[in-house]
Amino acid sequence: MSMPSTWLITGASRGIGLELTKQLLASPDAVVFATCRSPQSATPLLALGDSVSTNGTLHVVRMDVTDEISIVSAKDEVAGILQGRGLDYLVNNAGVAPQDDRTTTLNINDLLSTFLANVAGPALVMKTFIPLIEQGNRQVIANVSSALASIGTDFGREHTSYSISKYGLNMLTYKLAKERPDLTPFLVDPGWVKTDMGGSNAVLEAHESVAGIIQVVKNVTTKDAGQFIDYTGQKVPW
Ligand code: NDP
To answer: The complex's ipTM?
Structure first.
């Protein structure tokens, strides 16, 4: 039997976060802290606890990434369950994208709320959970970014607030990589995925993207700190 691994996923109620939780739990060695802002209404996530495909251990923990009090209480809850054992993998997956997000019609509240969830959220989650990650057998922080944050990929004119926020997440990850390369903070681009955010025209099913993301996250080494990598393992231009 391989060494058990411990994971914390943010935004696990639906989409990529839910699929990550599901695929990780297929392994009996995985302990997954699936966090979400409203566990009581996260029916598909709670159902994973009873699913026949679940072999690992699921802990559903409340955490709103825009609320520092909720992040700290989630950390206390997770630390209480781990009892001195660390967190091996933190996946900052929770994110938001406003509708009608163009520069010429930009809405300041959308810009600020997107920045709060997509940049301040991961910053606070990383800061709060670092002591638990330091105790892990493996120290990996995967921040879910987007090719829309890549000037090199050049996706053009839409998704302004969202792109600014993911660009900020990229710089945040770069900064942590400079300060703490031992924690392997890096960026993963899931591709364009059929979820509530990605929409039905997206090219990837959630299970395809997530299978790739899990391979990438498991295989990174400290040399990948600060890198921007897509779900197939290819580098994404900055
Ligand atoms: P969804 O909109 O399907 O899911 C978003 C998830 O984030 C939900 O679980 C939602 O929870 C959660 N969330 C939002 N705000 C908060 C918060 N304040 N605290 C805690 N959880 C929160 O999106 P995806 O699954 O598609 O996206 C996941 C990640 O992947 C995001 O970071 C996104 O930017 C990124 N991404 C997605 C792409 C795609 O094509 N789908 C492409 C590139 C990147 P709740 O149910 O409570 O709202």
So the answer is: 0.99
